[in-house]
C-alpha cells in the first residue's frame, strides 16, 4: 500500500497524511536492530552461557546516546523525569523514566552521572526525543549532544558498550583488569584499566545474573573486547548474538519498547517538532484498537512505582500521584502453554490454513508487539515482548493486565496472529488466528542474583 507521508515530514504531518497514528504505525515490520550478527554460535548455547558460565554482549549499536551538560542539567532532569535526584552523585547510574503530562509512559534509559553537570543517557530514542525537545524549547542553562541509534544511521558509535554476565562474570573481570576490581555497589561505576586502556566499569547485570557493563571510546573497542574474551577463555565465555541478547528481557522483566504516549492534543507542538524518522515505531500483534490511547501504559503499570518520586514537580506528577496507590493494571510474566505452542507449529504440517509462524527464540514482526489477552472471551490486557528461554524450557512474555487478573497462577488466553490474518502486512505470511493458553507469573520471572 502506498503512503502519502514521507520521512521528511514531522510526526504531526505524517499522522495527518496517514489518517491516524495507527494507520501510520501498522504493517511496517521491524527495522535493523543492531550490527551484531543474529548468532555467534547457536542461540541456545548463548542463552546457556549467562546461566552456566559467562556471556559477553555488545550493546554498542542499538541504543541512542543523549549527553546533557550544563549547570541546570540535574534540575532539568528533575523537571522531566519521575526519578528522585536527591544525593545523585558522580559515579552513579539510574533507570531514567519520563512521562507525558497525563502520566503516560514516554520512554526510559540508563542515566550515567559521569562528571559534575555532565550526564549521559543511553537508551531508546522515544524518551530522548522528548528531552531534546524540552531542552530546545525550555529555559535551562544546558546543552545536549545526541547520537541516534548507530544501527539505524550506519555511523560508528561514540562509545563501545560491552557487558559480561553470568556466574563467572566477576572472575573474568578480575582476570582482565590490571588492578583489583573496585568494590562497586549496584549501579555504581568507576574507571579501571584493562591492558593499559581505561574503561568505565558499571556494576550491573541482565537476565537476573550478576555482571558488569563497561564503555569507552569506540576506537578502543578491539583492545578491550580481545582482552575480555581472552580472560574468559577458561570460563567458556560466549558472545551473545542479537537473538539471544534480546531474549534476556523476559527473565529480567524489562519491557524494551511500547507505544510512546505522544498523540494526545497537548503533545501537538511536540509532534510538529519531532521528525517522523526519529519518532516512528511499528505496531503489530493481535490487539487491534482504533484508539491509540489503548496502547499507552504508565510508568507504574511497567513496574517503575519504586522509582517514582513525588519530591519533584515533574511532568506527569499529578496523574501518577492519583494512580500509584490504586493502579488499574500491572506488569506480569506469562508462561505460554507448551501443548498449544506445539499446535501452532504443527499447523504447518496439516491441511488448511496455518497459524502465524513463530520464529524462535524471539518472534517479532513489529518494534512494539501487542497481542490481546482474554479471560472468558473478555479483554483483560496485552502481551508484549516474548521469547523462548532454553534455561527455563519455557516460552515467556511480558504483559500488562488488569489487576484483577495478575495473581500468580491465573489462567488467561493469548490471541496469536495478526488482524485479518496478516492481510496487508508485507512481513507476515497469510494465516489464521488462534488462541494460546498461558499462566500468570511474577515479573521478574526468575530469581534476581545481581
UniProtKB/TrEMBL annotation:
Highest rank taxon of the organism: Archaea
PANTHER family noted in UniProt: AMINOMETHYLTRANSFERASE, AMINOMETHYLTRANSFERASE, MITOCHONDRIAL
InterPro entries assigned to the protein according to its UniProt record, in alphabetical order: GcvT/YgfZ/DmdA, GCVT_N, TrmE/GcvT-like
Region Disordered: start-end pairs: 416-450
Protein name according to UniProt: Glycine cleavage system protein T
Pfam families reported for this sequence: GCV_T
Domain GCVT N-terminal residues, every copy: 35-247
